[in-house]
Design brief:
Number of domains: 1
Order of helices and strands: EEHEEHEHEH
CATH superfamily: STAS domain
Mean pLDDT: 92
CATH topology: Transcription Regulator spoIIAA
Radius of gyration: 13 Å
Length: about 110
């Protein structure tokens, strides 16, 4: 899995990744993001190139959500494809994660 972290203005961490959040790389994804969270007030996860999320990937997202929530900070997922969005809906993750797709902003 390819992971790229970029600091944006006003304590925003933008994370791009490519591949699957599964047993083979979900922990690496989580660890890479966690080491950058110390000064972050908002975490933006670009899911445009994530094509699958396994249960362990959901667990990693839940852990990130809890970390950010405990710090009174915000987490947002951007550009989630239909398959992954369906996983979030089935598991109820769409009820507590902010999910924003660029196509929705244009309407």
């Amino acid at each position: 899995m390819f992971i790229k972290t970029t600091y944006l203005r006003d304590a925003v961490l933008y994370v791009e990744a490519k591949g699957k959040l599964d047993i083979y790389n979900a922990q690496d994804y989580l660890d890479e993001i966690k080491k950058h969270l110390i000064y972050v007030k908002e975490l933006v996860l670009d899911f445009s190139q994530i094509d699958y999320v396994a249960s362990i990937g959901l667990r990693a997202l839940l852990e990130l959500h809890k970390i950010m929530q405990d710090r009174d900070c915000h987490i947002k997922l951007k550009n989630v494809n239909d398959e992954v969005l369906n996983i979030f809906k089935i598991t109820g993750f769409d009820t507590f994660l902010t999910i924003e797709n660029d196509s929705e902003k244009e309407d």
